[in-house]
Amino acid sequence: MKILYILTCEDDTVKGLMEFQKKSHEVISVDIERVSYDDLVDLIFSSDKVISW
Fold first, then answer.
1. C-alpha angle 33/5/37, rounded to 5°?
2. Helix (H, G, I), strand (E, B) or coil at 14
3. What spatial distance separates the first Cα and last Cα of the chain, rounded to whole Å?
4. 31 or 10: which carries more pLDDT confidence?
């Protein structure tokens, strides 16, 4: 499963969750302020699950 994390901030809880899920899934994280709208839309539609923090 491909999981996309859209981050507004990154704390230890989020890092821990991403590391745990990386063991069995493909995990991608993006900083909402550093990604273009077009790239973000492409990432959303190519992911199986999207999580926003």
1. 40
2. helix
3. 19
4. 31
Task: Pull the structure tokens for residue 26.
Answer: 């493909």
Q: How many CB atoms lie within 10 A of CB 45?
A: 9
Q: Cβ contacts of residue 28 below 8 Å, gap of 6+?
A: 2, 3, 4, 5, 43, 47
CA distance 1 to 25: 5
Q: In what order do the strands lie in the sheet with 49-52?
A: 26-31, 2-7, 49-52
pTM of the model: 0.90
- What letter does residue 48 receive in the DSSP assignment? S
- Tell me the average pLDDT of the chain: 95
What's the CA gap between 4 and 19, in Å, rounded?
A: 13
